[in-house]
Design goal:
375 residues, 4-stranded antiparallel β-sheet, globular
Length: 375
């Protein structure tokens, strides 16, 4: 008997496979197609010949952990103890999975805000806990009244994703005020803050859970070097939590992966000495603006994008087909792959919306836009 009977092949795999089969331009799965910074590739090439190929300590390579602590201090003015509050993970998804397995018990409830990243629900189910899916408003702002009503004494965790995938929405100060009110009512409720796109925001700057005093003792923050440094295939990220929570997370981590890829930890540790993460938002804002400009004469209606490298678009002027069917036809008939937004909802809510990834080189964006403007 399956522990996850309703889990099938992810929509990302399905669309990327179809894109390859039909030689379509892949704007579906969220990975960049432009070169990695030469400074990083030069570091990794040199390190490959050095003695960096054995296990690092379970929690992470100590020099890297110290530099992550400095990055958090520089970015958010938060001081952490890297020995007690930090864990290097095999990608953000492993950090999320490990956190849920460590902290959620049988019978607990976990609040998940839809549309939501597809990796949140499965570890909850594997804990014999209950995912409580709560839809965001149609403009993708949180409906805190509805979220509050969904909470109960059984609620163990609420997952926030900021900046938000798939919609590109970011939380504001008012959202954190409302979150604090909920937490004050439920003292055992933990926040899992997925902040993998933390350095990719545009006109409005990212407000991290790191900056909120009321969260520091009851929140787990998850970050991704893969997203920040255009190296999604390296699968390396980190998790920050107060000592009493991190202690439990490390117990699971040591038997799940024990330690993370050594050479990538050595390389990123060096790279952090030369890279400026604050330039990332400007880089992707130019990508966003260029993609939006390319599509201004299309029949797609583009939604606001405040962060991430995803653009949500309505095709209601083009078709009334459901979004999964539309995305498949977009590949087979027009040569562009996108992701249907309904797949991020537990009830498959369909509003004729799809998600494009604009983390691509200009030639790819121009070629895709030309096809999309001809629909």
């Amino acid at each position: 008997m399956s522990k996850l009977p309703n889990v099938t092949t992810s929509i990302f795999t399905v669309m990327s496979k179809m894109a390859a089969e039909y030689n379509a331009i892949n704007l579906s799965q969220g990975f960049p197609n432009f070169p990695v910074d030469e400074r990083l590739t030069d570091i990794i090439a040199r390190l490959a010949k050095e003695n960096v190929h054995q296990y690092t300590p379970m929690a992470g390579f100590p020099p890297l952990m110290n530099k992550i602590a400095k990055l958090i201090q520089d970015s958010y003015n938060r001081t952490i103890n890297p020995d007690l509050e930090l864990l290097v993970t095999a990608g953000a998804t492993q950090g999320i999975f490990t956190t849920i397995l460590a902290l959620v018990k049988t019978g607990d409830e976990v609040i998940i805000l839809d549309p939501s990243y597809d990796s949140y629900e499965s570890p909850v189910l594997l804990c014999n806990a209950k995912p409580v899916r709560v839809a965001l408003n149609d403009d993708y702002t949180p409906n805190w009244e509805t979220i509050g009503k969904a909470c109960s004494e059984k609620s163990r965790m609420i997952i926030i994703n900021n900046p938000h995938n798939p919609t590109g929405k970011i939380l504001n100060e008012a959202d954190f005020i409302q979150l604090e009110k909920i937490l004050s009512k439920y003292p055992d409720l933990i926040v899992l803050s997925d902040e993998v796109y933390e350095y990719i925001t545009f006109e409005e700057k990212h407000i991290s859970a790191h900056t909120k005093d009321f969260l520091l003792d009851r929140c787990v923050m998850v970050s991704s070097f893969g997203k920040s440094f255009h190296i999604t295939g390296w699968k390396i990220g980190y998790t920050v939590a107060p000592e009493h929570l991190m202690k439990e997370i490390k117990k699971v981590h040591q038997f799940l992966v024990f330690s993370v890829n050594s050479i990538s930890q050595f390389a990123i540790s060096e790279y952090l000495d030369v890279v400026n993460v604050n330039l990332l938002g400007k880089f992707y804002q130019e990508k966003r603006d260029y993609f939006q400009k390319l599509l201004q004469n299309s029949r797609f209606k583009l939604k606001p994008c405040e962060g991430t490298y995803f653009q949500v678009a309505s095709y209601s002027n083009i078709s009334t087909e459901d979004d999964v069917t539309f995305c498949k036809k977009l590949i087979t008939e027009h040569g562009v792959a996108a992701i249907p937004i309904s797949t991020f909802y537990s009830d498959h809510k369909d509003q004729n919306l799809i998600r494009f990834c604009f983390a691509k080189d200009d030639i790819t964006l121009e070629s895709a836009a030309k096809k999309l403007c001809n629909i």
